[in-house]
Specification:
The complex is a heterodimer of chains A (about 240) and B (about 300).
Chain A (H helix, E strand, L loop, with lengths): L1 H16 L2 H19 L4 H4 L5 H29 L1 H5 L6 H21 L2 H10 L4 H27 L4 H25 L2 H10 L1 H9 L5 H24 L2
Helix pairs in contact in A: 1-6, 2-4, 4-8, 4-9, 6-8, 6-12, 8-9, 8-11, 8-12, 9-10, 11-12
Chain B lengths: L2 E10 L2 E11 L4 E5 L6 H8 L7 E6 L2 E2 L9 E4 L11 H11 L4 H14 L15 H13 L5 E5 L7 H14 L4 E5 L3 H7 L2 E6 L2 E6 L1 H8 L3 E8 L3 H9 L4 E6 L6 E5 L2 H15 L2 E8 L3 H10 L1
Parallel strand pairs in B: 3-8, 3-9, 6-7, 7-8
Antiparallel strand pairs in B: 1-2, 1-4, 4-5, 9-10, 11-13, 11-14, 12-13
Classes of the chains: A mainly alpha (about 240), B alpha/beta (about 300).
Chain lengths: ~240, ~300
């Protein structure tokens, strides 16, 4: 665990040293702020003291934001050969994968922490439902875990960052749209299975303030599966 | 810590990269690992450092058999092409490596300071790695490999791409750092092996084809001697023909600048005596006679070309 933490710290400071973190934070806050407060069906349009609009926008921003931070994780190490450097130290493949995962998750949590003023502002404007806001944030974090593990998996499959980014987006698109749309058209067990595999459905119920073990388990198992596969690919040493 | 390799094999697909090799490296020994590109040097090194798992065979370090990552803490490794995190400052990078090697937190910065001094990085320690010259990058790579004072050092082409001065510096550094350690280093630069290594292993197509000190390899390979001779006092044709008829001489050639005779013979000692006597008898001037040792290049070509 200690070794994972050393990796996580190094990666996180790498994000901030290379401007990646700042650019992505500005993009994420700008994008979500713009759609939450200024444009389209924003908070004032709904005339409700709720962060639902923000959660919807954040869901989409994170969808693009996460592949951008995960794409370099293994692809870059592989391209420069530094992965060999790491995996000949006192560090197991699993510790490396967990360390990278933690670093990405921490960056997402930092980004989300910067949106807490939204919460404060809306709470002052009216009567906000604290419960659903908290579960909404929790849902965003859980969903991010799943997307990060997908991103890491994509990054471990290639030494080209762009390929890793596109691959992560592609897998994301499957979970974000395709499964859901297919599920809507299907009847019976097939339809319900597809619906159960769609990420937005699980997120929606969390952002409404419901913590269902099914949703939590869904995100956790997706994360776990992604990380397991990543470790497997890394251990192949291609 | 002794390194004992027994029957090590590794294939990539259907291609055998390393084919049932065995050798030993004792504590305090610096072994030069030679071979053409693609001979299996790097693969062997990756297996010793436990980055790759062997298909079969055993690697025993200090009496303990390795599995995928049980002995990593005893090994310092400088990979081929010396990969580094370019965006990190030297000192942060070394600290990161030290922490990963499990050096206790309160000792890391002390150890980093020692390595910085030992590797001559003091003036560069706050620079980003990308700003360093190739020679200094190589020092950072060595410092990184040595940070936890490992008993075994594996260096994959540590001097590739350096200028002659830097090569000498890195070589001296390896000699200095390698005392009391088992060191395996691979290289393409043959004079370097003679200058640095106690023993040479030559590997070709995944198999070990030569193993011994530079001198013992020469003895094995020689079998024939070469004398460079310069004689005055008669037309060159006549001299050449007379030399040809000496017992033990197998061939005469001319040196590259056409000034000296290259006398190939079975025993250079015997032949030099006869050349001297010949000159005395014929009243020729013997201006020069130099026995040429079999060069490492020739040995290398011999064992890897067929």
């Amino acid at each position: 665990m200690k070794a994972s933490w050393i990796i996580a710290k190094k990666e996180l400071s790498g994000f901030f040293d290379s401007l990646v973190a700042y650019i992505l934070l500005v993009a994420f806050l700008g994008f979500s702020g713009f759609f939450t407060w200024l444009w389209g069906s924003d908070i004032f349009y709904h005339k409700q003291a709720s962060l639902d609009t923000f959660f919807n926008v954040a869901l989409w921003s994170l969808f693009f934001f996460i592949p951008a931070i995960t794409m370099r994780q293994f692809a870059e190490e592989r391209k420069t050969g530094t992965i060999e450097l790491l995996l000949t130290k006192r560090l197991t493949d699993r510790q490396l994968v967990i360390g990278k995962f933690l670093a990405c998750l921490l960056l997402v949590v930092i980004a989300l922490a910067f949106t807490l003023p939204y919460y404060v502002a809306v709470a002052r404007l009216g009567n906000i439902d604290h419960g659903s806001t908290i579960t909404g944030y929790l849902g965003l974090i859980l969903m991010s875990c799943a997307y990060i593990s997908i991103g890491l998996l994509a990054s471990s499959l290639t030494s080209n960052q762009i390929v890793a980014f596109l691959m992560a987006l592609l897998i994301g698109v499957v979970f974000q749209f395709i499964i859901g749309s297919l599920g809507a058209g299907e009847q019976g067990w097939m339809g319900s299975l597809l619906n159960d595999l769609s990420i937005p459905r699980h997120f929606e119920s969390m952002s409404r303030g419901v913590i269902d073990t099914k949703d939590v388990l869904y995100f956790l198992s997706l994360t776990f599966l992604g990380l397991m596969l990543t470790e497997l690919i890394v251990s192949k040493r291609k | 810590m002794d390194i004992l390799i027994e029957g090590l094999s590794k294939s990539y697909g259907s291609e055998k990269a390393v084919d049932n090799i065995s050798f030993e490296v004792r504590t305090g020994e610096i072994v030069g690992f030679l071979g053409p590109n693609g001979a299996g040097k790097t693969t062997t090194m990756k297996m010793i450092t436990q980055y790759l798992a062997p298909d079969s065979g055993r690697i025993i370090l200090g009496g303990k058999e390795t599995s995928l990552n049980n002995m990593r803490g005893s090994i310092g490794y400088l990979p081929e092409h010396n990969p580094l995190y370019d965006e990190m400052p030297v000192i942060d990078y070394l600290e990161f490596c030290g922490q990963l090697q499990g050096i206790p937190k309160n000792q890391v910065s002390q150890r980093v300071r020692e390595m910085v001094v030992m590797c001559g990085l003091n003036d560069e320690k706050h620079k980003k790695i990308s700003e360093l010259s190739k020679g200094f990058k190589q020092r950072v790579g060595l410092a990184q490999a040595m940070i936890h004072d490992p008993a075994i050092l594996i260096l994959d082409e540590p001097t590739t791409g350096l200028d002659p001065n830097q090569r000498v510096e890195i070589r001296d550094l390896i000699r200095k750092l390698g005392v009391h350690k088992s060191v395996i280093l691979s290289t393409h630069i043959l004079p370097e092996v003679e200058a640095t290594c106690d023993r040479i292993l030559i590997i070709n197509k995944g198999k070990i084809v030569a193993n011994g000190t530079p001198d013992s390899l020469r003895m094995q390979a020689s079998g024939k001697g070469l004398l460079l001779v310069d004689i005055e006092g008669a037309p060159r044709n006549e001299i050449q023909q007379t030399l040809q008829q000496l017992p033990g001489v197998t061939g005469i050639g001319l040196s590259a600048d056409h000034k000296l005779f290259e006398v190939e013979c079975t025993d250079s000692h015997q032949t030099s005596r006869s050349v001297y006597k010949l000159c005395v008898n014929k009243n020729w001037m013997l201006l020069q006679m130099t026995p040429v040792e079999a060069r490492l290049e020739d040995i290398f070509r011999n064992v890897t070309m067929n």
